[in-house]
Amino acid sequence: MRVELTVNGAIHGVDVEPRTTLLDALRDNLGLTGAHAGCEHGVCGACTVLCDGAAVRSCLMFAVQADGIAITTIEGVTPGPGELSILQDAFCETHGMQCGYCTPAMILAAHALLTNNPAPSRGDIVDAISGNICRCTGYAQIVDAIALAAERIRGVNRPPEAGA
Ligand code: FES
Ligand code: FES
After folding, report:
1. Ligand 1 test: best mutation among 26, 33, 36, 39, most atoms within 8 Å of CB?
2. What's the pLDDT tens digit per position in 111-127?
3. What is the pLDDT of residues 12-22, one digit of tens each?
Protein backbone atom coordinates (compact mmCIF):
# COMPACT_ATOMS: atom_id res chain seq x y z
CA MET A 1 0.00 0.00 0.00
CA ARG A 2 1.15 3.53 -0.70
CA VAL A 3 0.94 5.94 2.24
CA GLU A 4 2.07 9.50 2.67
CA LEU A 5 3.90 10.06 5.92
CA THR A 6 4.53 13.61 7.09
CA VAL A 7 7.64 13.34 9.19
CA ASN A 8 9.56 16.27 10.65
CA GLY A 9 7.80 18.59 8.23
CA ALA A 10 8.55 16.63 5.04
CA ILE A 11 6.09 14.44 3.13
CA HIS A 12 7.31 10.97 2.14
CA GLY A 13 5.43 8.54 -0.07
CA VAL A 14 6.27 5.02 1.13
CA ASP A 15 5.16 1.54 0.10
CA VAL A 16 4.24 -0.59 3.10
CA GLU A 17 2.31 -3.72 3.87
CA PRO A 18 -0.94 -3.22 5.79
CA ARG A 19 0.72 -4.88 8.81
CA THR A 20 3.79 -2.59 8.78
CA THR A 21 4.06 -0.66 12.01
CA LEU A 22 4.81 3.03 12.04
CA LEU A 23 8.03 2.15 13.90
CA ASP A 24 9.20 -0.14 11.10
CA ALA A 25 8.22 2.36 8.40
CA LEU A 26 10.19 5.10 10.12
CA ARG A 27 13.25 2.93 10.65
CA ASP A 28 13.25 0.71 7.56
CA ASN A 29 11.63 2.89 4.90
CA LEU A 30 12.82 6.32 5.98
CA GLY A 31 16.06 5.48 7.80
CA LEU A 32 14.98 7.38 10.92
CA THR A 33 16.54 5.05 13.48
CA GLY A 34 16.18 7.36 16.46
CA ALA A 35 12.87 5.64 17.26
CA HIS A 36 14.10 2.47 18.95
CA ALA A 37 12.58 -1.00 18.91
CA GLY A 38 12.49 -2.33 22.44
CA CYS A 39 9.67 -4.66 23.43
CA GLU A 40 7.64 -4.03 20.24
CA HIS A 41 4.42 -4.65 22.13
CA GLY A 42 3.65 -1.39 23.84
CA VAL A 43 5.39 -1.79 27.18
CA CYS A 44 8.76 -0.01 27.14
CA GLY A 45 8.09 3.26 25.30
CA ALA A 46 11.43 3.16 23.43
CA CYS A 47 9.61 3.64 20.12
CA THR A 48 7.87 6.88 21.18
CA VAL A 49 7.31 9.53 18.52
CA LEU A 50 5.00 12.56 18.48
CA CYS A 51 1.80 12.32 16.46
CA ASP A 52 0.19 15.76 16.14
CA GLY A 53 2.21 16.69 19.23
CA ALA A 54 1.14 13.76 21.43
CA ALA A 55 3.58 11.08 22.56
CA VAL A 56 2.61 7.80 20.86
CA ARG A 57 4.12 4.31 20.81
CA SER A 58 4.98 3.80 17.17
CA CYS A 59 5.17 0.01 17.58
CA LEU A 60 1.45 -0.07 18.33
CA MET A 61 0.38 1.98 15.33
CA PHE A 62 0.25 0.85 11.73
CA ALA A 63 1.95 3.08 9.17
CA VAL A 64 -1.32 3.36 7.26
CA GLN A 65 -2.95 4.88 10.34
CA ALA A 66 -0.37 7.68 10.32
CA ASP A 67 -1.32 8.97 6.89
CA GLY A 68 -2.15 12.68 7.28
CA ILE A 69 -0.74 12.99 10.81
CA ALA A 70 2.20 15.27 11.62
CA ILE A 71 4.88 12.96 13.00
CA THR A 72 7.94 14.20 14.86
CA THR A 73 10.90 11.95 15.58
CA ILE A 74 14.01 12.73 17.59
CA GLU A 75 15.71 13.66 14.30
CA GLY A 76 13.22 16.52 13.98
CA VAL A 77 13.80 18.29 17.28
CA THR A 78 17.32 19.58 16.68
CA PRO A 79 17.60 23.25 15.73
CA GLY A 80 20.09 22.40 12.94
CA PRO A 81 22.62 19.80 11.82
CA GLY A 82 25.09 19.08 14.61
CA GLU A 83 23.16 21.19 17.13
CA LEU A 84 21.26 20.11 20.22
CA SER A 85 17.86 21.30 21.38
CA ILE A 86 17.54 22.77 24.87
CA LEU A 87 16.14 19.43 26.07
CA GLN A 88 18.92 17.41 24.49
CA ASP A 89 21.53 19.73 25.95
CA ALA A 90 19.95 19.43 29.41
CA PHE A 91 20.07 15.61 29.18
CA CYS A 92 23.80 15.84 28.47
CA GLU A 93 24.38 18.29 31.28
CA THR A 94 22.60 16.31 34.01
CA HIS A 95 23.83 12.93 32.75
CA GLY A 96 20.23 12.06 31.90
CA MET A 97 21.42 9.18 29.73
CA GLN A 98 23.62 6.17 30.21
CA CYS A 99 23.38 3.69 27.31
CA GLY A 100 21.02 6.11 25.55
CA TYR A 101 18.54 3.48 24.39
CA CYS A 102 15.56 5.12 26.07
CA THR A 103 16.78 8.68 25.50
CA PRO A 104 15.12 9.70 22.21
CA ALA A 105 11.76 8.55 23.56
CA MET A 106 12.32 10.25 26.91
CA ILE A 107 13.15 13.51 25.15
CA LEU A 108 10.06 13.31 22.95
CA ALA A 109 7.83 12.55 25.95
CA ALA A 110 9.39 15.56 27.68
CA HIS A 111 8.87 17.65 24.55
CA ALA A 112 5.14 16.84 24.62
CA LEU A 113 4.97 17.70 28.32
CA LEU A 114 6.75 21.05 28.04
CA THR A 115 4.68 22.10 25.04
CA ASN A 116 1.54 21.83 27.15
CA ASN A 117 2.98 22.60 30.59
CA PRO A 118 5.98 24.92 30.60
CA ALA A 119 6.30 24.87 34.39
CA PRO A 120 5.85 21.23 35.40
CA SER A 121 6.31 20.00 38.97
CA ARG A 122 8.60 17.02 39.52
CA GLY A 123 5.41 14.97 39.87
CA ASP A 124 4.21 16.18 36.47
CA ILE A 125 7.56 15.17 34.96
CA VAL A 126 7.44 11.73 36.57
CA ASP A 127 3.91 11.26 35.24
CA ALA A 128 4.94 12.33 31.73
CA ILE A 129 7.74 9.74 31.51
CA SER A 130 5.93 7.04 33.47
CA GLY A 131 5.25 5.10 30.25
CA ASN A 132 8.93 5.00 29.34
CA ILE A 133 11.29 2.42 30.80
CA CYS A 134 14.97 3.21 31.33
CA ARG A 135 16.79 -0.08 31.70
CA CYS A 136 19.79 1.79 33.09
CA THR A 137 17.41 3.17 35.78
CA GLY A 138 18.70 6.72 35.47
CA TYR A 139 15.31 8.19 36.29
CA ALA A 140 16.49 10.83 38.80
CA GLN A 141 18.86 12.41 36.27
CA ILE A 142 16.20 12.25 33.55
CA VAL A 143 13.76 14.15 35.77
CA ASP A 144 16.55 16.64 36.58
CA ALA A 145 17.19 17.12 32.85
CA ILE A 146 13.57 17.86 32.06
CA ALA A 147 13.26 20.26 35.00
CA LEU A 148 16.44 22.07 33.86
CA ALA A 149 15.18 22.31 30.28
CA ALA A 150 11.82 23.66 31.46
CA GLU A 151 13.58 26.37 33.44
CA ARG A 152 15.76 27.30 30.46
CA ILE A 153 12.87 27.35 27.99
CA ARG A 154 10.92 29.62 30.33
CA GLY A 155 13.98 31.89 30.48
CA VAL A 156 14.29 32.02 26.69
CA ASN A 157 10.60 32.85 26.37
CA ARG A 158 10.65 35.50 29.09
CA PRO A 159 10.23 39.01 27.66
CA PRO A 160 13.27 41.26 28.17
CA GLU A 161 13.08 43.55 31.20
CA ALA A 162 12.19 47.16 30.46
CA GLY A 163 15.34 49.17 29.79
CA ALA A 164 17.46 46.03 29.33
S1 FES B 1 9.04 -0.84 21.40
FE2 FES B 1 7.15 0.19 21.43
S3 FES B 1 6.57 0.19 23.53
FE4 FES B 1 8.40 -1.01 23.48
S1 FES C 1 19.88 5.28 29.47
FE2 FES C 1 20.00 3.14 29.09
S3 FES C 1 17.91 2.56 28.90
FE4 FES C 1 17.81 4.60 29.61
Report:
1. 39
2. 999 999 999 999 999 99
3. 999 999 999 99
